[in-house]
Amino acid sequence: MKGYIYVYDQRSAYLKELFLENGVEIVDSIEDEADFYFVKDQKLSRKNVFSLVSLNQNYHFRHLNNMLTAIGTYLLVSQKKDTHSILILGYGDLGKQLANLLKKQYIVTICNRNYKDYDQIIQNYKHIDFVNLKGTYDLIINTIPCAVINYQNVSYQKIIDLAQTLHLKNYQSIRNVPERSFPYEAALIMYFAIQEVMNHV
């Protein structure tokens, strides 16, 4: 099998190494013939083109990638000794994993846009409605992409945003936590996701 891998960060460098170590020939140019292509954001009209965006359509990849994001965020939060109460915006897969890691050490409040998991939330956490966002928290962690969030009625020391970038006071946007904190493990997840597809071609 031949592949092309566009190396643009440490994670994709590890991905290339993993394929080479497992006997896959990696071609030098995107113009070369290959069985699969891993790209950053290049548009290719070929079969078996992978990118982070396309891999995120795979539930198993997304779940494992979210796990790395949750662990990396937890490690970051645990360095702040004055944090006691945390508001998590969003209760999708990432929000759930993050809340589960944080609940043993912090008072966790969940704010989500629907009542889909309301019964589960109130068994383990505090809950506030997204429309009536208010309260006082040491830290707010946003996991909701492309959302208009009104922070006016919320008192906080810091916001960590894992899903978008805004310009607010005491605000930190952190993207690509898996690549920053666990580049090799993130590459492994990508490797197995691509191999799973290619094994069925």
Secondary-structure map:
Elements: E1 2-5, H1 10-21, E2 25-26, E3 36-38, E4 49-50, H2 52-55, H3 59-78, E5 85-89, H4 93-102, E6 107-112, H5 118-124, E7 126-129, E8 135-142, E9 154-161, E10 171-173, H6 177-181, H7 183-198
Parallel strand pairs: 1-2, 1-3, 3-4, 5-6, 5-8, 6-7, 8-9, 9-10
Helix pairs in contact: 1-7, 3-4, 3-7
Overview of the structural elements:
The protein has helices at 10-21, 52-55, 59-78, 93-102, 118-124, 177-181, 183-198, and strands at residues 2-5, 25-26, 36-38, 49-50, 85-89, 107-112, 126-129, 135-142, 154-161, 171-173. The model has no long low-confidence stretch (mean pLDDT 94). Helix 1 packs across helix 7 (183-198), helix 3 packs parallel to helix 4 and helix 3 (59-78) runs antiparallel to helix 7. A 6-stranded parallel β-sheet has the order 7-6-5-8-9-10, covered by helices on one side. Strands 2-1-3-4 form a 4-stranded parallel β-sheet. The chain is of the alpha/beta class and 201 residues long. Strand 6 (107-112), helix 5 and strand 7 form a beta-alpha-beta unit. It comes from Faecalibacillus faecis. InterPro entries: NAD(P)-bd_dom_sf (IPR036291). This is Dipicolinate synthase subunit A N-terminal domain-containing protein.
